[in-house]
Amino acid sequence: TVDITGVKTRDQQTVYSFYPKYGQTSGYTIGRLESKYALLTGIPNSNATWMLVSNYYGYEDLSAPGDSGGPWFSTPHALGIHHGGYEDEEEMQWAVYMAINYIDDLGIEVMTE
Questions:
Q1: CA 79/CA 22 separation, integer angstroms
Q2: Which of 68, 73, 74, 113 stands the most exposed, by the fewest C-beta atoms within 10 Å?
Q3: How far apart are CA 10 and CA 98, in angstroms?
Q4: Do 52 and 62 contact (CB within 8 A), yes or no?
Q5: 3-state helix/strand/coil string of the chain
Q6: What spatial distance separates the first Cα and last Cα of the chain, rounded to whole Å?
């Protein structure tokens, strides 16, 4: 487990920083934040606000089916909620997460105690 005492909003997260996540299938992995302006074409009316992470360290699976909903974090801060991943034409793996501050729109908050 990881003790989370606060959040880092989308604006507070830094491109090219390394952030860990935990996925139910892939387990603990670390990726490098490449963009805070990713647009997901498979989501209707989506804005370019998704966080795009590269498989910088070359894990076998940076993201795998079953990881959705898992946490991205930078101890002791929550960063976001895992959405999914994909592999591009060059066989580079990518992961995508929603920044934690967007959960406010759902009327929920991060438990920090």
A1: 12
A2: 113
A3: 9
A4: no
A5: CCCCCEECCHHHCCCCCEEEEEECCCEEEEEEEEEEEECCCCCCCCCCCEEEEECCCCCCCCCCCCCCCCEEEECCEEEEEEEEEEECCCCCEEEEEEEHHHHHHHCCCCCCC
A6: 13
Residue 104 tokens, joined = 């406010």
Tallying the residues shown for the chain, one arrives at 113
For the segment 47-98, what is each residue's pLDDT rounded down to a tens digit? 888 999 999 999 999 999 999 999 999 999 999 999 999 988 888 999 999 9
Q: What is the pLDDT of residues 68-77, one digit of tens each?
A: 999 999 999 9
Side chain identity at 86, as an amino acid letter? Y
State the Cα angle at 109 between 106 and 113, rounded to 5°: 165
**Can you give the pTM of this predicted structure?**
0.91
Question: What count of Cα atoms within 13 Å lies in the side-chain half-sphere of residue 103?
Answer: 19
